[in-house]
Protein: Polysaccharide deacetylase
Amino acid sequence: MGSVFVVEYHHIRAGKNSMIRSPKEFRADLERLYKLGFRPCTVSQYLNNQMDMPPGATPAVFTFDDSNPSQLQLRPDGAVDPNCAVGIWQEFAKLHPDFPVRATFYVLPDVMWGQPKMLEKKLALLKSLGCELGNHTVTHPILRKLSDDKVKEEIAVATDRLEKLGVPLPVSLALPFGVSPKNKQLLRGFDYKGKRYVQKAVFLVGAEPACSPMDPKLDRYRIPRIQAYNGPMGLPEWLDKFERGQVKAYVAP
Ligand SMILES: [Zn+2]
Structure:
């Protein structure tokens, strides 16, 4: 019944703000999580309580938002750029096979990491690694400012695009900026242009560990995440608390 760390990344590149994790910091996160006994899983594995962990391991649900180029880049020969998030993690997983690349990517269908000609290759790669895609709307709006109809359009069109790419539905949704629409009922599901759309779950931006998938208190339409940045309620701070025994995390039976 312990809590689950749902970790959230945006850019993996040089620079300093809460949306950026440098390659060095990302490597350090993987190393620290590994040493503390965390093992990676996707959002679906978490929601379905099929986290596929060795006994005693603690799940870390990895999420990457916005499909920024620095998350997944291929070189002209098709090889994964060793400096993008997936490349760095693959390198880490070679040394630590029990920490495989396993994450949920909340993508913007018009962005999808740039390199449009490489998209099919990237999707096949992610699938082969056991990663999955989730919905992050089409244009990343502040949903609270939109009419119900516009909210539906943002979620529905993104869902259709994912379905077209072969993603099994329903998918989960990460709210742009963590902001809910005025009409929160839309987060569960709605009808749009004669079709029914439902969300498997909805994720916020911050700022604490989530409930265990078996906990009746888990609100699937408001699941918190932990941002990977050096600041209040960021990943390093939560890992410090975990190390000091101040967070009771879920442990695989
Ligand atoms: Zn975003």
In short: The first strand starts at residue 5 and ends at 9. The helical segments are 23-35, 43-47, 85-95, 119-129, 148-164, 235-243. The chain has one domain: 5-243. The chain has a mean pLDDT of 96.
